[in-house]
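Dear support,

I submitted the protein below through the web form. The confirmation email said the job was done, but the results page showed an empty box. After a refresh the structure appeared. I'm attaching both so you can tell me whether what I see now is the final result or a partial one.
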Amino acid sequence: ESIFLVLSAAFLGYEIFSRLLGSYLDIFTIFGIGSSFGIILSSWIFFISSLYIPLTYVHGMTHALILFSTGIILNLSRKKQNKIKSSFTSHTIFFFSVFLPFIFLSLFIEFSILYKENITRGACYGDIPFHMSLISSFSYGCNKQRKSLFDILTPFFANEQLAYTFIPDFYSSVLLSCF
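What the results page shows now:
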């Protein structure tokens, strides 16, 4: 279910950028830019809406369905207007440019960072506890029920404002809390 949320956000971002830049860029560039934009947009929508609506399964699925539906509407309206510039039509090129790097990155993370599925090693040894504490603070701790939009406290110093880029950790807490 969490993969549906991420894919819905990526799909919406792809549709937004294919509508804006479809006649100028090829499909892979639009996919790279659009999917990143969609996930960031989804993160900020969740961040703002979590002030008023708690992060629950219903919130997550409703959000994912709205993103997916909006992407479908944009896709249907775009097909009437213009076609995306297609410089690469081969499935082989798509495989080598999208799936092969994903598989390589997954294997790299599995063998270089993770050890026995729950122990970390290498460069992330000191970084993982920091990020896990931020994720936990958004899911269960001091940042779960904020009073205002940027009233974000650091989970390791009492009543101190967080001075760090928090959106990736917040999105991880969305995936943890909603699914």
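Response: this is the final, complete result; the empty box was a page-load delay. The mean pLDDT is 83.
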